[in-house]
User: What shape does this take?
Amino acid sequence: MAGFILAGASILSVPEKTQAADPRLTITLPSFPVTLNGQTVDNRNREYPLIVYKDITYVPMTWYDSRYLGLENQWSPDQGLTVQQSNITASYHGYASAEANTARSYRAELTAGPITVNGQAIDNRTEEYPLLSFRNITYFPLTWRYAHDAFGWEYDWSDSSGLSIRSANPQVKDAGLPEYAAGNGFAVYKDYYYFAETDGPLNHIYRSPVSNPEAREHVYEYEYSTTYGPNPRLSFSVRDGSLWLYYHMGGAIMGSDHYVKLNEDGTAEVGPSGKVDFRDSPMGRVLVNYFVAPSPPNLKLVPEGSPEDAEPVILGDPSMIYGWAINISDNGATEYATGNMQVVGTNLYTHGSAYPLSSENRRESKRVWRIDLKTRKPTLIFQESIDKFKVTADRRILYVKTADGLLYASDLNGQQETLLSGQHKVHEFDSVGGTVFFTVLVEGWMNQLFKVERGREPKEISGNYFAPVYFTQDRILAQTLGRQLTLNVYDSRGEVQLRMEGNVEALFTDGDQLLFKLEGETSLKALQF
Assistant: This one.
């Protein structure tokens, strides 16, 4: 039988029949405790337990065990078994067995066929402590040669705690939060976890130190209504260097958005509410109204230091609609979508459209304007319609034109235009550590990821398809598609920093901290890069 990766069982299979040089290989289970990266192994009730042969402990190379310990393994008829230390990780899997391991000893065989470890061929027939095959799984001996030199593991022994093995790869750990924290929005920010608990008609918001997740602290609560359905989900986001809570109350049309600022001292400030979005600036808070039937003036400023009952002042041209990406389709229908808004110093960059928008003046829709928050005067940046734009830290504007769907860059005045994406129509884009990345949509939902280096053609980062792709200030997180789902973490050069096995359903990242939920898991996991 040929070896293959068995996706359903998530283990590495090897040929069932091997020619054992010594058919009398006898193994036992450890009579002492074993921990892998701090996780106690239940060898008695594990389908693939650690084993002992010639007084040496052996570790199973299952799909998840190997990746949990920073190793990748593959098997093919031509190449045999290959094992490579890499920047990969996975959560711990217990491989619980329906039957307990109660026998005094078991039989194992020598692993047959070609074996390669970190590119070096291994002659298993001459090894003092050879690789073994037990329950159709390859086992590696915990000798200094393999554990320390080849795999970079640390291990020690004590009479009280038994054997402890620690790998060098970043570890996926249980965040230590209650299970209900995974059922709604969550965040990690400035060394605190934030999560929600529903109690009757109330949603309670808590935070817990990453270093001591059991010490939860009540931050905020609000009463929700089930008139328009079940408890509405909430979410967290970072805006202008602060953590914000968002939730929606009521129906989609007549309901309202609510924002709450969560301060670093554990207090909360109620922010804007209604059909509204906002941006904070040195001049005060910019508000944009998103009524179902928009009408001007919908862009206003609450000056810094104004009393609570102060009337906001109008920004830009009072006859225009800002913050909306409005379009007239070919059949004459009006299409509304929220546009881009970004504060840079004392300037606001935003979409702006003429009002009322008609087929005659639709060339004036989705233009980008810069509004001086001191003078409140608008300046047109682009004559053409722009689908999406972003102002980068190196004082450039990245933008996708409506006419061709291509990605361009210009200076802050819309001058010195440069085509970045070649002939690729762009879906999403961002500047990560000064390097521009963009995605191309395939079949309406899969993403290809590209990097743009100045003066060069766009380069695809990987031959994989991704869904979704997250851009942060200095990293890209992209979930691969296929038989084995992997979260890839790329640095600002487009190099793989880390790969984590598993299907990530939701995540929140801040700096080196990652908080996430894996498919099939009931609790939140945490990872530090």
Notes: The two ends are 40 Å apart (CA to CA). The helical segments are 63-68, 144-150.
